[in-house]
Design a protein that fits this description.
alpha/beta; TIM Barrel; 41% helix
Amino acid sequence: MTSLTPSRSDHTRYLCGLAPVIPVLVIPDAAVAADLGRTLIGAGLPVLEVTLRSDAALDAIRAMAALPGGHVGAGTVLSADDARRAKDHGATFAVSPGLTDAIAAACEDLDLPLLPGVATATEAMAARDMGFDMLKLFPAEAVGGRALLKALAGPLPQLSFCPTGGITTATAPDYLALANVTCVGGSWIAPEADQRARDWDAIGGRARAAASLQGQVSP
């Protein structure tokens, strides 16, 4: 049996187990971040991924990090500098679309738990050899989705996944039914239009529905 380095995924595995869906958030205006975070956390989704895809992202992370009951991380972490800025603004974990030595080293130096992205068996094996056993499959639908995850489960049973990318409220239960899927990432829960309109009822309704999702195999 291959000897692996100790897991660097203990905390991200814990976070991924707190709810079936992690909202993947693009926040265009940090002024809505606190209300958005309270809505999502109150609806049963305590783990929030704020992607670094807007100028407001870091300020949004800072605002959400002050909320009780939540765990706010930075998504789309592409460099060591991204990781440092995220940690400085209160992020308690990082999510990257891929995995590089520089990002892994920076997150380790910062004591910032990392959920790294993979898209192939080779990338999953490389992440495993670096000590990560809780991974993000990205972009899930584009790279094979449930079929790929089923195929990876045989040779790599020690790995668990949070698939993200193209997943919807309709397809999420089929992903959650897989033994190697702990949760999914969902961008459908808080679209930018609803954030701008401050439509917390609509966002909260989607969040409550997501929090109640369970795995089921479609016919």
